Prior knowledge:
The chain is an alpha+beta fold. It has helices at about 1-10, 25-35, 55-65, and strands at about 20, 25, 40-45, 45-55, 90, 100, 120. It folds into two domains: about 1-65, no CATH class; about 80-120.
Amino acid sequence: MCHEMIHLFCLENAIADTCQKGRYHNATFKKEAEARGLRIEYDRANGYSTTSPTEAFAAKLAESGFDMTVRFARITPSQKTSSERVKAHKYVCPLCGQEVKTTAELSLICGHCEVPMNLEV
């Protein structure tokens, strides 16, 4: 909840704490979160977004009557095995060489040459 309250504080004070439509947490968010007793971990996809309480923050919560033995709702996704990953497909125009990469099996026509594109394996 403190993570979200930091976003609210930044919004109310016109502090830019994210970019990429709010998905990527920047160094400003990290600074604001650490100032409030949160531990911040960096994630390549979301920036400084993974938060957990520091010992001092957890102690303040415990003093206030919060039960820290209750598990938090965040479930970290497990890494997919290579057999579970979605296979990427590459389509190439036989005339101009234009390439299209997708995870779907499609029937594509080159927009320049107006010929069917070949699926490369």
